[in-house]
Amino acid sequence: MFDNLSDRLGGVFDKLKGRGALKEQDVRDAMREVRIALLEADVALPVARRFIDAVTEKAVGQDVLRSITPGQQVVKIVHDELVEMLGGADTPGLDLDAKPPVVIMMVGLQGSGKTTTTAKLGKLIREKHGKKALMASLDVNRPAAQEQLAVLGTQVDVATLPIVAGQQPVDIARRAMEAARLQNADVLLLDTAGRLHVDEALMAEMKAVAGVSTPHEVLLVVDSLTGQDAVNVAQSFSGEVPLTGVILTRMDGDARGGAALSMRHVTGKPIKFAGTGEKLDAIEAFHPSRVADRILGMGDVVSLVEKAAATIKEADAEALAKRMAKGQFDLNDLRMQLQQMQSMGGLGMLAGMMPGMKKAKAALAASNMDDKVLVHMDAIIGSMTAKERARPELMNAKRKKRVAAGSGTDVQAVNKVLKMHQEMGRAMKQIKKMGGLKGLGALFGKGGLGGAMPGLGGPGMGAGMGGNMPGLGGPKGPSVDPDTLPPDLRDLLNKK
Fold it and tell me: Are 410 and 404 contacting, i.e. CB atoms less than 8 angstroms apart?
């Protein structure tokens, strides 16, 4: 979503960091380019102006201009101001600390994704917070809106209020409150009706529902693809109903990001969640500091580790760790790794969250590589027999032809998978010689992981894989300072 803004800012800061000393005019020229970048990203003019003024005031101080690394100091100031613009370091999450049932009212325009987001929140409340939720649709205008929520409720295993034909929103809200009490539900999610635009009827209906249900949270759902108009919609709603937060949907789209950057300043309400896809688990808490890191190309290791913890099965990880410690790695292990990469969002998502991997992400796009590569590799391994997966050395020319035909690929693609496995197998043996995971931890900061694991970016991946992805490793790949890693990841690497 922030790719264009990130590229523009990256270019500006590369020029600053390339100079040994900075003059005040250098900083002002850079800030002029930053302002243009923000306005092109559809950031509201007052927000962009306030941001530039705040950064310039701090960046032209003597402490910055006379420091050893003035360029990096300016980047840090921009980072801190971005965090402040997005909501500050302490952004409140979902507040469920009230007498049950805690009522959460979802409001917004039609088509912004309220119903799907309601189901996503219900799933998150059940799985992350361990609370019992009940969902109720108050949308009697849109055809099949109530049926849609009922279907989504079945998919996420969250109860929904039975539909009574002809009942009006206020009556449905009363019935939902009574049902939530009878069923001992901890949380009641009310999915209100939307309109194509903000009008008096919409506001009157929302106020009537709020009067009956006294919601603890009123969350505005806005589509980030609508750009600057999303900010105007949020401003209209915040003037009429007591909003407690905002949920931005379609954060994975190609919007310019202005809505997210302007929302907090214009409405005064925090962005609490971001919808990152169509799947019902594609919602994440909005962390201003992590979003600022991504915009400035610093990666988001914390979110990456959290995503890994949520998607990778502990038993599988332990089994693989034991095999790694013994220097064992067959095609079943490789297949499991590929499937985990897919479940975590694919190559593009992972490259975008790793520090210093901006070039790798660009290389992926330039080489026309997408997540279908992972699917094809999985199909190739799936076309092998159990014996071949356990003993890849059995793969002769005749077997390769059979596997290529079975997976809909060619022999060259089969060879690339086998070569990748071979290189990663060698890396596992090196790790065993170096003392297991503790030895692997020492590699962080010595040329990155690529130098020790050629299968992740060296010649072992073939011309179609690592050859076109220089950012993924090798002697010139990005190195990672262990001190910058999250404590949980540091502890893992320090274990023998």
Answer: yes
121 pLDDT exceeds 60?
A: yes
Q: Please give the Cα distance from 64 to 482 (Å, whole number).
A: 27
Q: Please check whether residue 94 lies inside any domain of the structure.
A: no
User: CA 132 → CA 176, 180, 183, 399, distances in Å?
Assistant: 14, 10, 9, 53
SS3 at position 142 = coil
pLDDT digits (tens, 9 = 90+) for 304-326: 555 555 555 666 666 666 666 66
pTM of the model: 0.65
Percent of the chain whose predicted confidence (pLDDT) is above 90:
26
Q: Give the other-Cβ count within 10 Å of 245's Cβ.
A: 22
Sequence-ordered list of residues with C-beta below 8 angstroms from that of 421, at least 6 positions apart, any chain: 329, 330, 331, 334, 392, 455
CA atoms within 13 A on the CB side of 319: 11
Total structural domains within the chain: 3
Same-domain status, 69 and 111: no
CATH number of the domain bearing residue 81:
1.20.120.140
Same structural domain, 76 and 135: no
